[in-house]
Recover the amino acids of this structure.
């Protein structure tokens, strides 16, 4: 058989590495993907399944999940024309590339940031300008603005709270960015439920060049069903809609998302527990000899120990506790004799106890 014509795949794709997460089984504490540690309530699963059971599975779902779009719009005080619901927000990052990026289009991305943005932008052949963080791993609005202005960025993406650092961009800075960038400002608010106070929607209300990306995968606990949103000015969203594939949200995902959206008190309860557990864990890790914690504003935080980061992650994994090695981000790699950062997501109290016990023993045995 002749060789497959791989050279016909666009070079910008061939240069990439596939985003792969190993399938995990037999884990005592899965603290590596910033998910909710809780599956949705059985009552919600039952209600959604009952509803979907009565629909024809041989028929396409709505071209857009109209009921979910309407419910999101109502809850967030937007017009339905201002809302896109997609197959997780990962999927919507492609839409950003499709709508705003030609080869050579200037795009500004602060680092470190959820790696998919840079990967998607490279695949659309954007001219990416990265903006390094300050020493405390926060981002300066002035530095982002300077990069966006100098490059004439069509797209500037910021995340607050940011993954993997857990740090936020102050509301005033978001407003400054929205007013100052030459193009579109995307604010990824995947973890917004963990914050109080004004949100990116308040920035959007005053700035029609703002797009806000959110997800049902984190505080809402639906990572397994894939639901994410992009909201913005209705005129902008309606243009973007033209690029969207039909039927990307299936009946089950829509039904469950509607149920979860209707019970904000459950999400708030879980968020409160997560915040309290975050502080308990951060205090405990900080008290371990030679350990340093960068407290986060979402459901995870960064820490480093006196030991090599890879050894710590591997030893914990051997005990069934999975955390994330984030040293692939150059800003978080070991430097000047300081070990690299590790990221732990907040789990159930039992998972968190398992994490603390294994970390304590790793440090004690070192
Ligand atoms: N944005 C950020 C900042 C994230 O951390 C993640 C998940 N790691 C996503 C988006 C992706 O979310 P989704 O599950 O909706 O694709």
């Amino acid at each position: 058989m002749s060789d497959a014509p791989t050279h016909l795949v666009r070079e910008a794709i061939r240069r990439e590495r596939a985003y792969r997460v190993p399938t995990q089984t037999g884990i005592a504490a899965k603290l590596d993907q910033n998910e909710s540690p809780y599956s949705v309530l059985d009552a919600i699963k039952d209600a959604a399944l009952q509803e979907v059971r009565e629909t024809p599975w041989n028929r396409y779902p709505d071209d857009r999940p109209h009921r979910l779009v309407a419910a999101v719009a109502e809850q967030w005080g937007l017009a339905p024309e201002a809302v896109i619901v997609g197959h997780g927000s990962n999927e919507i990052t492609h839409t950003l590339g499709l709508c705003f990026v030609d080869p050579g289009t200037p795009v500004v991305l602060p680092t470190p940031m959820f790696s998919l943005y840079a990967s998607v932008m490279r695949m659309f052949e954007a001219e990416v300008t990265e903006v390094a963080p300050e020493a405390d791993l926060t981002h300066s609005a002035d530095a982002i603005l300077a990069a966006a202005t100098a490059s004439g960025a069509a797209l500037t993406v910021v995340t607050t709270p940011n993954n993997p650092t857990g740090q936020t961009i102050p509301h005033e800075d978001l407003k400054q960015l929205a007013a100052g960038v030459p193009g579109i400002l995307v604010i990824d608010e995947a973890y917004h439920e963990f914050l109080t106070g004004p949100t990116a929607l308040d920035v959007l209300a005053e700035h029609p060049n703002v797009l806000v990306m959110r997800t049902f995968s984190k505080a809402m606990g639906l990572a397994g069903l894939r639901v994410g949103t992009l909201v913005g000015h209705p005129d902008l969203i309606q243009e973007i809609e033209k690029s969207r594939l039909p039927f990307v949200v299936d009946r089950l995902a829509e039904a469950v998302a509607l149920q979860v959206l209707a019970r904000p008190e459950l999400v708030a309860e879980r968020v409160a527990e997560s915040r309290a557990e975050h502080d308990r864990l951060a205090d405990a890790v900080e008290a371990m000899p030679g350990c340093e914690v960068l407290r986060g504003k979402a459901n995870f935080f960064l820490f480093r120990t006196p030991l090599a980061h890879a050894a710590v992650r591997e030893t914990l994994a051997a005990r069934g506790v999975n955390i994330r090695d984030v040293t692939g981000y150059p800003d978080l790699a070991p430097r000047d004799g300081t070990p690299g950062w590790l990221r732990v997501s907040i789990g159930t109290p039992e998972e968190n106890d398992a994490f603390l016990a294994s970390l304590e023993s790793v440090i004690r045995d070192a």
